[in-house]
């Protein structure tokens, strides 16, 4: 009985409809060179690491990118005793993309409201994970934008 359940689960997973958003692209035939970063150091590093995953070093099309990020942690609410209970984490990333003497600028934003946690270590780990997720989302938007540039 257990084997049937596992087999059914595996069959369901293999046919769940997942496909990569880049599946229809034969290859991402461009190189992304990050030439300058300004702003939040940690957020820029997360974004750079995400971008490296999609840069083809042997490509003919080369994009030089400047990144300017601003990460903010804003207090939203406090309890009646003055203890912070909710935060808003937000990032604004501005990309200047230079290719073939054309310069385009794009702005991407992400934000989320979170609850404060009593454990500082858990809070910092949670915020770092959110930053990684922001970087991944921003990378997705950037790659989609660059693919749109290639179509023109």
Low-confidence stretches: 21-26
Fraction of helical residues = 25-40%
Average pLDDT level: 83
Number of contiguous helices: 3
> Strand content of the residues, in percent?
35-45%
Radius of gyration from the alpha-carbon trace, in angstroms: 20 Å
Overall structural class, as computed from helix and strand content, comes to alpha+beta
Q: How are the strands of the biggest sheet laid out side by side?
A: 1-2-3-4
Q: Whole-Å distance between the termini?
A: 56 Å
Name the shape in a single word.
flat
What is the count of β-strands?
4
The major β-sheet equals: 4 strands, mixed
- Give the SSE order as H and E letters: HEHEEEH
Can you describe what's shown?
The protein is of the alpha+beta class. The chain is 38% helix and 38% strand. The chain contains three helices and four strands; from the N terminus they run H-E-H-E-E-E-H. It has helices spanning 2-14, 41-52, 120-151, and strands at 30-39, 61-78, 84-99, 102-115. A four-stranded mixed sheet has the order 1-2-3-4, covered by helices on one side. Helix 2 (41-52) crosses helix 3. The radius of gyration is 20 Å and the shape is flat. The relative contact order is 0.16. The model is unreliable at 21-26 (pLDDT under 50).
């Amino acid at each position: 009985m257990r084997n049937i359940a596992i087999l059914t689960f595996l069959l369901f997973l293999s046919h769940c409809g997942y496909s990569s958003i880049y599946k229809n692209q034969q290859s991402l035939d461009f190189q992304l060179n990050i030439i300058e970063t300004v702003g939040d150091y940690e957020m820029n590093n997360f974004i750079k690491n995400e971008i490296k995953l999609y840069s083809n070093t042997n490509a003919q099309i080369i994009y030089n990118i400047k990144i300017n990020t601003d990460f903010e942690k804003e207090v939203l609410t406090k309890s009646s005793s003055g203890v912070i209970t909710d935060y808003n984490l937000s990032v604004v990333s501005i990309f200047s993309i230079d290719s073939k003497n054309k310069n385009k600028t794009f702005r991407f934003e992400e934000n989320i409201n979170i609850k404060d946690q009593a454990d500082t270590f858990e809070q910092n780990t949670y915020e770092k994970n959110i930053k990684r997720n922001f970087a991944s989302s921003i990378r997705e938007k950037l790659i989609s934008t660059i693919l749109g540039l290639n179509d023109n």
